[in-house]
Specification:
The protein is an alpha/beta fold and 375 residues long. The chain is 46% helix and 12% strand. It has 16 helices and 9 strands. The chain has helices at 9-21, 38-48, 53-65, 77-97, 108-117, 121-128, 174-180, 209-213, 242-254, 256-274, 277-283, 301-308, 314-321, 331-337, 341-356, 359-365, and strands spanning 32-36, 134-141, 147-153, 161-162, 165-169, 190-192, 195-198, 218-222, 291-295. The strands form 2 sheets. Strands 1, 2, 3, 4, 5, 6 and 7 form a 7-stranded mixed sheet that branches. A hairpin with a 2-residue loop joins strand 6 and strand 7 (195-198). 43% of the residues are buried.
Length: 375
């Protein structure tokens, strides 16, 4: 599950549809769970409750269907005023005091929510009992530049090290989720061991690789942007607002690399399909085809965010309005911060519809017998 702030509500809708397609909702159909950014929060929530998949999805639905921004970051006027004052002082006198604001928003409420809702000790228990094989959370190191997959899993899993990619076996904690979901500039970095980490989507050159390293041979991918869009080039005579530029930058971090990685994986699969197994064995190449199923939004989430931007708290709406974030063209930035139930419920419903539209593909991919239909 990829990142994207409030866009991750779409993932919950997809998971809800998968739950309804299962013949036994208690059995977890995903023994390996991998998540980045807000997708990491969803993945860990599934892992914590993986001994009953239906219960895990119900917990996610309850949170995401009733979200408000104050559960993720300080959205009250006083908190925003303090943050604005710190930025103003830094811009005016930072050269003298050598102190700088850590982020645009304070995500202390998210720490409190995660601590209250998730018992991280249940992850290892689920692994010991066979309900889960592995769970990884990816974060990006600000000093090393490495994309690090922090994971818990079976004893036979070996940590890996590749160019700008690494893995670390460790008991997952709330700090890993705060680090993985720390949107650049917007939320503060989190220190884990000796390094500060930020959002896992930054510099994540191969988003699918943690699942492959953990042993997955079939990967169910939930995207948070439309795939294979056509006719995107449109005339633009109006200079882009700061919000539009910021949304474009975030899209390059969160959305583009996943699509590129999927395309590369499909290309490798095509090559492997043309090479006989005997030749592969003689050459000693440890490559195997990876089957994938991608569920992605059938509508632009930026446009949905633009329709619901009025649901944001007044202070955040004012802040976004000052840089063009409340207009349709700036909906991209709003789509990451709109942790409000009118928007999250719209994404959940869209995710559910998109998955049910491909129910036959999902059932076949997961090797399921269709769930009985209740009249």
């Amino acid at each position: 599950m990829s990142g994207g702030g409030a866009r991750a509500a779409y993932q919950v809708g997809v998971l809800s549809a998968v739950r309804d397609l299962l013949p036994d909702t208690r059995i977890n159909p995903f023994p390996i769970l991998c998540g980045t950014s807000a997708g990491a929060i969803n993945a860990v929530s599934l892992g914590v409750y993986s001994e009953d998949f239906g219960d895990a999805v119900d917990n996610l639905l309850y949170i995401w269907r009733n979200f408000h921004a104050g559960q993720v970051y300080r959205a009250d006027n006083l908190g925003l005023a303090r943050t604005g004052m710190r930025w103003l002082m830094a811009l005016m006198f930072g050269w003298a005091v050598d102190r700088y604001p850590k982020s645009l928003l304070d995500n202390t409420p998210l720490r409190e929510l995660l601590t209250e809702r998730l018992d991280f000790s249940r992850i290892q228990r689920a692994i010991d009992r066979g309900a889960l094989y592995a769970l990884s959370v990816t974060a990006s190191g600000y000093t090393s530049g490495d994309s690090v997959a922090f994971f818990e899993g079976g004893e036979d899993i070996e940590p890996w090290k590749r160019m700008q990619r690494a893995a670390s076996r460790t008991p997952l904690k709330v700090e890993h989720l705060l680090a993985s979901s720390a949107l650049p500039f917007i939320f503060p970095a989190t220190k884990i061991n000796r390094e500060y980490f930020g959002d896992g989507s930054m510099r994540q050159l191969a988003p699918i690789s943690p699942a492959v390293h953990l042993g997955a041979e079939r990967i169910f991918i939930i995207g948070v942007s439309r795939m294979n869009e056509k006719d995107q080039r449109r005339r633009g005579d109006i200079y882009p607002s700061l919000a539009q530029v910021a949304g474009h930058a975030l899209a390059s971090i969160f959305l583009d690399q996943l699509m590129i990685d999927i395309e590369q994986l499909q290309r490798v699969n095509d090559i492997l399909g043309r090479v006989p197994d005997r030749v592969m064995a003689e050459m000693g190449l440890p490559l195997r085809p990876i089957e994938t199923l991608v569920i992605a939004p059938s509508e632009r989430l930026d446009d949905i965010a633009a329709r619901h931007v009025d649901a944001l708290p007044f202070g955040i709406r004012t802040l976004l309005g000052g840089i063009g974030g409340t207009k349709r063209a700036g909906g991209g930035l709003a789509s990451y911060l709109l942790f409000e139930k009118p928007y999250t419920r719209a994404l959940i419903d869209l995710g559910y519809r998109d998955t049910m539209a491909r129910a036959a593909d999902v059932v076949s991919f997961l090797g399921l017998k269709p769930a009985p239909i209740t009249p």
